[in-house]
Amino acid sequence: MQTDFNALSVFAMVAEEKSFRRAADRMGVTRSAVSQTIRKLEATLGIALVSRTTRSLALTEAGERLYADVAPALSGMQAAIESTGNLQGRPRGVLRLAVSSIAESFLSGALLAAFAESNPEVKLHITVTDEELDIVAEGYDAGVRLGEVIAQDMIAVPVSAKQRQLVVAAPAYLERFGTPAHPRELSGHRCIGWRISPHVPPYRWEFAEDGKEFSVVVADTITTTDMSLMIRLAVAGAGISFGMEDSFRAAIDRGELVTVLEKYCPYFPGFYLYYPSRRNMAPKLRALIDHLRRPG
């Protein structure tokens, strides 16, 4: 069987965009050209790769499997082409990053603004998401997450100091309902929880005592997928909340929130930029790594 590798690239673009039209726009071709290429690839393989209606598009089981297999190879080839084509090593092109919403220091603006100014030929496409993504399969150059949840086969570069999660509440709430002396007492309080999406359980409230880690199940009075709303509700006295110290820092410094149970909240490794091991790293990603490692 003779494989058309250009057709695989077109298929990967369709898989990423979940749309013939958007894939065609990215490649600068017509929608019909994309559709015809996919039909020929399906005919060559003898199996349907894409299930489409007038309103939606999804990969079939065979399509999902093919995309998972070819995406890393295509990404590696693209990096090799960019590296080879850029003989002077000038960073250029689109740098796609998937960044956790709670990576406050990375998303603060200053770091990325300085990188963009130093690398004017690099376009930054940043997706802020807390979903567990396969960055290779999803077409990202790198991601930023807490070190403890990064796969071991990834290369990781620290982008923050050590982190910790804190329990916080408005002073008015504590005056009204009392201050818990131990994490287990949280079950008797109104609590505000955060979750990645409506279909995922709320974030666990994790602590440590005498070197042993444990989690507490709280009865969330309110849960939300919006971290900023969670903070505003805590400031408004709606209950006790739990999250990254950096997320609460501004409200704590203003006196709108106070911390409780700090001795049960240990530090842990912070956020890392992570990416797959590649012999031919694109200059745009190398430039970002070098920027992160620069003192100050």
Describe the structure.
- With about 300 residues, this protein is α/β, with parallel strands linked by helices.
- The protein folds into three domains: about 5-70, Winged helix-like DNA-binding domain superfamily/Winged helix DNA-binding domain (Arc Repressor Mutant, subunit A), CATH 1.10.10.10; about 90-160 and about 270-295, Periplasmic binding protein-like II (D-Maltodextrin-Binding Protein, domain 2); about 165-265, D-Maltodextrin-Binding Protein, domain 2 (3-Layer(aba) Sandwich), CATH 3.40.190.
- About 35% of the residues lie in helices and about 25% in strands.
- The protein is built from ten helices and 14 strands.
- The chain has helices spanning about 5-15, 20-25, 30-45, 60-85, 105, 110-120, 170-175, 225-235, 245-255, 285-295; strands at about 50, 55-60, 95-100, 120-130, 140-145, 155-160, 165-170, 190-195, 205-210, 210-215, 220-225, 240-245, 260, 270-275.
- A five-stranded mixed sheet has the order 4-3-5-14-6, covered by helices on one side. It has a five-stranded mixed sheet with strand order 11-8-12-7-13. It has a two-stranded antiparallel sheet with strand order 1-2.
- Helix 1 (about 5-15) packs across helix 3.
- The longest helix is centred in the N-terminal third of the chain and has 25 residues, at about 60-85.
- The model has no long low-confidence stretch (mean pLDDT about 85).
